[in-house]
Specification:
Elements (H helix, E strand, L loop, with lengths): L9 E2 L2 E2 L4 H11 L5 H9 L37 H15 L4 E4 L6 H12 L3 E5 L6 H5 E13 L7 E12 L1 H8 L2 E5 L6 H4 L2 H6 L2 E3 L9 E3 L5 E6 L12 H4 L3 E4 L5 H12 L3 H16 L9 H14 L7 H9 L6 H16 L3
Parallel strand pairs: 3-10, 3-11, 4-7, 7-10
Antiparallel strand pairs: 1-2, 5-6, 8-9
Length: 358
């Protein structure tokens, strides 16, 4: 029997006479199915770290696809000198054994770039988060971000309307939960800038392979960590401002690797890779930065990033940098000064170091 509507009245755009079988048939017709190949092509247009094909882990469907906004951006300026290679091999050795690695070093020494490079070589999807004093456990694991309300209407009889409202809490996974669930490489940048209480959730992840989701209830409160899950954390040395000393119980579950600034030749190569300036210009910039580094305290030491900034400014000046040469170095280290007196001392230091080039 074919149903034929005889009453034009509609509620919320739908005919009150449309039976359930007709609604199901209509929904199936309107449903657009996205094939795996179409999804791959869509993801290729986004800046993901790895081939989108590897995002599909096991039998995941598209609705469980890891959110692409968490992926680490690709880097094209990485320089792998002998000292960088040796450090990378050590980190990958510990990562291969399944232990999380805590990379510790001064600002601007290249920790984040190294971690990004290693994460890419691991070949798994990558999620990351930046630690700060306001970060909480919820920022790591996730929580109920909003309440979803659904309404149901029964329109079988045109003059009878039955309704029911269903309120559903909607859970949103944050980076750590995503990494544990899908076996991603979890990069926790500036780990020691977050308060220890926020990082307690990592204890069971690193030791028992279980992630506890404090906001959930029942069996869904506990998530078994994927066997491909890996973690790399970065921190500044303890003497930097805003650094919290992590709890011993957590440090016991990680491998700590300290790194310093790279060698002279490696720093020169890094500056050239980022700026495309001639070798001699890059060498002089790195020489000045390294000399300044020798004569200031730990917190005020300029990193390789400062040398890159000077190199880019020189490139912008297109050969006319002589007028501003000294001032370029003063500007890049001025952000780490405490007063005009301190800045004056830095100016004298820069002028003295540059005079040694001639």
């Amino acid at each position: 029997m074919i149903y034929k509507a005889t009453h034009p009245r509609k509620v919320r755009g739908e005919s009150v006479h449309q039976p359930l079988s007709e609604k199901i048939k209509q929904n199936q017709t309107n449903l657009k199915t996205i094939s795996t190949s179409e999804m791959h092509e869509k993801l290729k247009k986004q800046s993901c770290l790895i081939d989108p094909k590897s995002l599909f882990i096991g039998n995941l469907d598209t609705k469980n696809l890891i959110q692409s906004e968490y992926f680490l951006p690709n880097t094209d300026c990485f320089v792998e000198g002998p000292d960088v290679k040796e450090l990378s091999e050590r980190i990958k050795l510990w990562i291969g054994t399944g232990y999380p690695v805590h990379l510790i070093g001064p600002t601007g020494c290249g920790k984040t770039s190294l971690v990004m490079h290693i994460a890419k070589e691991i070949g798994r999807p990558v999620v990351w988060i930046n630690g700060d004093d306001a970060l909480t456990t919820k920022d790591l694991t996730g929580g109920y971000a909003q309440i979803k309300q659904e309404s149901m209407r029964d329109h079988y009889i045109h003059n009878v309307i039955k309704s029911a409202d269903i309120i559903k809490p909607e859970w949103i996974d944050n980076p750590l939960a995503i990494a544990c669930k899908y076996g991603c490489t979890f990069v926790y940048n500036e780990f020691s800038r977050a308060k220890p209480t926020a990082n307690n959730v990592l204890l069971s992840v690193f030791e028992e392979g279980i992630l506890e989701l404090p906001s959930k209830f029942g069996q869904e409160r506990y998530l078994k960590v994927h066997p491909e899950f890996r973690a790399i954390l970065t921190s500044n040395s303890i003497e930097y401002a805003g650094i919290h000393a992590p709890q011993d119980a957590l440090l016991d579950r990680m491998v700590g690797i300290y790194m310093d600034y790279y060698s002279l030749e490696t720093e020169i190569d890094i500056v050239r890779k980022h700026t495309n300036i001639p070798y001699e210009e890059a060498k002089n910039i790195v020489f000045v930065i390294r000399k300044i580094r020798e004569q200031v305290n730990e917190v005020q030491k300029p990193g390789t990033r400062a040398a890159i900034m000077v190199g880019k400014a020189m490139k912008q000046l297109n050969g006319n940098a002589e007028k501003y040469y000294n001032q370029l170095f003063i500007d890049v280290i001025a952000t780490k000064t405490g007063s005009n007196v301190d800045l004056f001392q830095k100016e004298k230091l820069v002028n003295n170091v540059i005079s040694q080039l001639t």
